[in-house]
Design brief:
- With 442 residues, the protein is α/β, with parallel strands linked by helices.
- The protein has helices at 15-20, 39-44, 51-62, 69-79, 107-125, 138-146, 188-199, 202-208, 218-221, 225-235, 253-263, 310-319, 321-324, 335-349, 355-366, 368-371, 390-397, 426-438, and strands at 3-5, 8-13, 30-32, 85-90, 93-97, 129-134, 153-160, 179-184, 210-211, 243-246, 270-274, 279-281, 287-289, 328-331, 377-382.
- A hairpin with a 2-residue loop joins β4 and β5 (93-97).
- α4 packs across α5.
């Protein structure tokens, strides 16, 4: 598989290049430019195939010109000691739970895969790399597990003061770990400014071997396509009609990765999601990407710190314009309908559904015009542990589930006892980057 920028399809790069130098200099985002037909691999897998094995097999099929099957299997095995859970709720309704990793969020899958793949690439090439990301705190819990045992990959995380959680003392660079957390005396935007400042200068990116652990990096996004294949292996012997996936919009990462899975020949009929200002329906009820009205040459470069995958979605729509208008189904969902969906999922199925999952279910209820006509089944995508949205659940149900013991550590606040950095203090971050190299922590 090769990759091109959303703003320049003439220059192709490899999987390795796309992960290591994750932001194209033209201001776009990397997307696959050629997709293998993996139907044989997908149909061969069944309910006994583990997620790690499935991910290794699909990775091998996708990038067989760069990595051997043994290396691909090792990347996935190292990344995924956990896997999603698929449950059947009724005859034509299933739920895909993506929060059974270490931090209670779907982000565990992407960060674990990216870290495993990057460490492998760096070892093969004799290189080192630093992941530079802004966060409100939760990414720290993901990276804590993803970077365990990594020798060539380090992470600098920048968060507002007091928001870090889920990090252990052993994770810190000054204790021999792989993460250098920095607290900023400011807000989330101030943190993003640090990342943007460095990634706006290609020379600095090259000098410090910088990459990203958010979905601007295609290596973080691509493994999310495995979710849908995994769900298919669990339900293909049960369903009789077509399969639809219902999900929240988020930053469109799950949707575009689902579309990539379709492009790889996964049997899927469509994707249902709540409408957003950017992704909605036109006067004829067909899907429309509003951002598409602004020419690429008149846009600012893609934000490396806070990426909007809507640009990847636009690119996909342009490549498949006729089909896409009958493949993605937005629905206008109100707050009242989201609350009703939450209550219905609990009463009928004993499911604690956070606001995102409830919104996806509400959208699916509104689009029965397509699912019933096709006698289709709906797979409801639940991205995060319900406990994270406990205020929403308490408001609608009067109760919420306990925090699973497995992820308790991910919610423990972290006291760094380190200097708090003022906004735009880029000299401090430069000194940290220099220290990582000069102190030979790698």
């Amino acid at each position: 598989m090769r990759f091109v920028s959303t703003r320049n399809e003439k220059k192709q790069v490899s999987f390795q290049q796309a992960l290591l130098n994750c932001m194209p200099e033209d201001g776009g985002l990397y997307v696959p430019c050629d997709c293998e037909d993996l139907r044989h691999w997908i149909l061969y897998a069944d309910e006994k195939t583990s997620f790690a094995n499935l991910a290794g097999t699909l990775t091998s099929a996708l990038i067989n010109t760069e990595f051997s099957p043994i290396i691909c299997e090792a990347i996935a095995t190292s990344a995924f000691p956990f896997e999603p859970v698929v449950r059947q709720l009724d005859e034509n309704l299933f739920i895909l739970e993506l929060y059974h990793g270490f931090s209670g969020t779907f982000k565990d899958f992407g960060t674990a895969y990216l870290a495993s793949a990057l460490e492998t690439i760096l070892k093969m090439n004799g290189e080192k790399s630093i992941l530079l990301d802004a966060t409100t705190g939760e990414l720290g819990a993901c990276m804590s597990k993803a970077l365990k045992g990594k020798k060539l990959l380090k992470s600098i995380l920048i968060a507002p003061k007091g928001s870090f959680r889920g990090l252990d003392e052993s994770d810190f660079v000054w204790n021999g770990g792989s993460i250098f957390p920095i607290e900023v005396d400011g807000n989330e935007k101030d943190c993003h400014d640090f990342v943007q400042h460095f990634f706006s200068n290609p020379e600095l990116v090259k000098k410090y071997h910088l990459s990203l652990a958010n979905t601007a990096n295609i290596g973080r996004l691509l493994p999310q396509a495995f979710f849908y294949t995994f769900a298919f292996t669990r339900i293909k012997k049960i369903v009789n009609g077509d399969i639809y996936y219902a999900m929240s919009a988020g930053n469109y990462g799950n949707l575009i990765s689902g579309l990539y899975s379709w492009q790889l020949a996964l049997p899927v009929k469509g994707f249902i999601l709540p409408s957003t200002p950017q992704l909605c329906t036109d006067a004829q009820g067909k899907v429309m990407v509003v951002n598409d009205l602004v020419p690429l040459e008149k846009r600012n470069p893609a934000n490396p710190s806070d990426p909007l995958n809507i640009e990847r979605l636009e690119h996909f729509f342009k490549q498949n314009s006729l089909m896409m208008r009958s493949f993605v189904y937005p629905a206008n969902v109100s707050n009242k309908q989201i609350s009703e969906a939450c209550k219905e999922l609990f009463v009928k199925y004993k499911i604690y559904a956070d606001s995102e999952t409830s919104a996806a279910y509400a959208a699916a209820r509104l689009r029965t015009d397509i699912t019933r006509n096709d006698e289709g089944s709906v797979v409801l995508v639940a991205r995060n542990c319900p406990f994270i949205d406990r205020e929403f659940l308490m408001h609608n149900l009067g109760e919420c589930p306990k925090l699973p013991e497995k992820v308790e550590g991910a919610f423990k606040p972290v006291a760094l006892n380190r200097p708090v950095v003022s906004p735009k203090n880029y000299d401090y971050l430069t000194s940290v980057l220099n220290s990582l190299n000069l102190r030979r922590i790698f």
